Sequence to fold (144 residues):
Amino acid sequence: MSAARIMILNGPNLNLLGMREPEIYGKDTLADIQALCEKTAEAHGLSIDFRQSNLEGELVNAIQECRSGYGGLILNAAAFTHTSVAILDALKTLTIPVIEVHLSNPHRREEFRHHSFVSLAARGIICGLGAKGYALAIEALAKS
Ligand code: CA2
Fold:
């Protein structure tokens, strides 16, 4: 990987992880997932910038920040996955690999979750594996 820093971005409501709907999203809190990401990244000699926002524009700004100083982006855009052309447009300006991650498997859920704007710009997609998906995404970027 060209730069040893990875941006990990989390979209709306993921700050509530561990507090509701554990049967869908698992028991881990976002802080637990951050700790797992830090441990996994360190094991691969990488550093991470782990963020969450409920605001579409803040996520677009963070994606734009990835244009320099970052070697990869791991993105769980949450509900914006299924709605945001603005996030897709921002992703299309990047040259670094983007891995789309979802805790649940959106394809087993409501039909409106079956389409992802993020997928159109993603190198790879990991879904349905819970928090482990984030660690697998870091490993994939470390080996890219
Ligand atoms: O499975 C995923 O990671 C999702 O990106 C999560 C999004 C959902 O809209 C996507 O279709 C799939 C929702 C995140 C909401 O997080 C909550 C956490 C705790 C309690 C309620 C919602």
User: Anything to note?
Assistant: The radius of gyration is 14 Å. Residues 5-142 form a domain with the Rossmann fold fold (CATH 3.40.50.9100).
